[in-house]
């Protein structure tokens, strides 16, 4: 569905995206996981044609996304990181405006708005101005808006950043149900749990480069399913093991603060980059 080849974006001396290669299949839920400044937003902006690329290529179902190419534009729905809803308009009007921009006939527009407000549990706030909405409600409305024209590929840039855990879980459920209905999703995040829970495959991104790629389980297997965390020489160190028994044997020889736990994507990220996703 989405093929990215040798994609580069430079801002002066800064290489925000550095020769990125990536293929995302139809119906896949793919996550770009990385710390602030890794180049995730820039990648999504290039796919959605908001930022021109320096070099390389992007193709969606064999077509290059071009601002003026309606057939490709129709295939993509975008949920940007920052709220760009019309705050002086109601939820309904925001969706209505999007439907008009995409030339959806009136009857279809109305039906879709009702459906999406219900899906995002915003039906009872349809007539309220967006400026009265909570952060979570705004984010849900942005997802509804991106889905208005029935895109085949949904791009989400940090969809739950700044939201409290309960609202975050609600949004995860919405995204899971979209994915189980066959929508292709590309999400960027710096939340480990978000990537682990939602994504079929994850690309670890650091300093504009894709460092590792695979399913969360496969990536974790690469480093070892269990980790012993211990404090030595003034710093927290980690050793990885394939089995809990091996981890226990190693841990039993250590003194002081020692913890055995299952490995996660944060461990994978640290192992391959020497940095934390939260850095
Ligand atoms: N418009 C711009 N002008 C100059 N530099 C930019 C611009 N946009 C991004 N950058 C730089 O490109 C690099 C990648 O930024 P990008 O926003 O893509 O990272 P990110 O992984 O999405 O992080 P975040 O989650 O903080 O947005 C950073 O070094 C950033 O400072």
Explain how this protein is built.
- By secondary structure, this protein is α/β, with parallel strands linked by helices.
- It has helices spanning 40-47, 70-75, 91-101, 106-119, 135-147, 165-180, 192-198, 216-223, 244-252, 265-273, and strands at residues 2-11, 14-24, 29-33, 55-60, 76-79, 153-157, 184-189, 201-206, 209-214, 226-232, 235-241, 258-262.
- The strands form three sheets. A six-stranded mixed beta sheet has the order 5-6-7-3-8-9, sandwiched between helices. Strands 2-1-4 form a three-stranded antiparallel beta sheet, covered by helices on one side.
- It is globular.
- The model has no long low-confidence stretch (mean pLDDT 92).
- It binds adenosine-5'-triphosphate (ATP).
- Adenosine-5'-triphosphate (ATP) binds at residues 11, 14, 16, 34, 36-42, 158.
- Adenosine-5'-triphosphate binds next to strand 2 and helix 1.
Looking at this protein, list some descriptive labels.
alpha/beta, Rossmann fold, single chain, globular, 2 domains, 279 residues, 36% helix, 3-stranded antiparallel β-sheet, binds adenosine-5'-triphosphate, 12 strands
Quick description:
GO terms for molecular function: ATP binding; ATP hydrolysis activity. It is an enzyme of class 3 (hydrolase). Helices cover 36% and strands 28% of the residues.
